[in-house]
């Protein structure tokens, strides 16, 4: 029995010791290699679940930034003031709360699937300014929330996808650009607190910005604030479009719409561009900036707020036959009056 008691005591002490281990803070030192999983690259050992991770900005000659190609770290808070690259791997089921500091860069690239569906990405205000999020080279990134405050930038390019399940918010001085057949999908969960707020500039150049989960008809809205600008670069060979599958596009007084072409010389009269899809379009743009069309062409916005279509039409008025009759009648009368005066 004594042996049993000692065994139980030893096991109990081990359990107590294990329970007393707390989450730690470890900093990237950046002087050995870019390998995220190399212990010597960290000041306090490899990050563990629930640890706080700090990635500083470049700190001198020889400093390299971390690259994540695999990780067993599922929960963490990452304070990023430098560059963090997630590359060419499938990282699913993660809960990384990433805070972008001043001049920070988060790059998700090279076909990676980063499924951070419980985690968040915040920048600006108390976090920092001029932070960047880039998703490129066919990558896919999922966050629960994306909130960009102050002067911050999102670029989604080269057939990539960025998804915000619940919250997507752009500050008045932030900018988001979608290009190269890429897309941003927001409000993709079934939660009631889904929001999509565009207070800054959203640029679509062969890109799709869509809200609402296909198959879930819960109503949601894309809110374009008074400080918001929607810029679409149109083409006859690609699509730039703002979509809300089951809700409204709400345009505040003061919002701006800018329309441009990737090749203005290719546009002819009769072209139509379906730039909005939504159940309803509420409000109108206070300012509409448009590319200058060739002589004889004009913009037609008559369907913009009903069906989301803008067109290019001929502005040369061709008189009706009855108008020709009046013109020739007037000329004949003028000729008769002239003859009589002579």
Description:
The chain has 342 residues and is mainly beta. The chain folds into two domains: 26-186; 192-206 and 220-342, no CATH class. Helices cover 13% and strands 43% of the residues. The strands form two sheets. The chain has a 24-stranded parallel sheet that branches. Strands 22-27-26 form a three-stranded antiparallel sheet. The longest helix is centred in the last third of the chain and has 21 residues, at 321-341. It is elongated, with a radius of gyration of 29 Å. The chain starts with a helix and ends with a helix. Mean pLDDT is 84; it is low at 1-20 and 335-339.
- Sheet with the most strands, sense and barrel status: 24 strands, parallel
Query: Could you give the count of β-strands?
Result: 27
Please, how many domains? 2
Describe the global form: elongated
Strand content: 35-45%
Helix content: 10-25%
Give the terminus-to-terminus CA distance. Answer: 142 Å
Nearest-integer average pLDDT: 84
Structural class: mainly beta
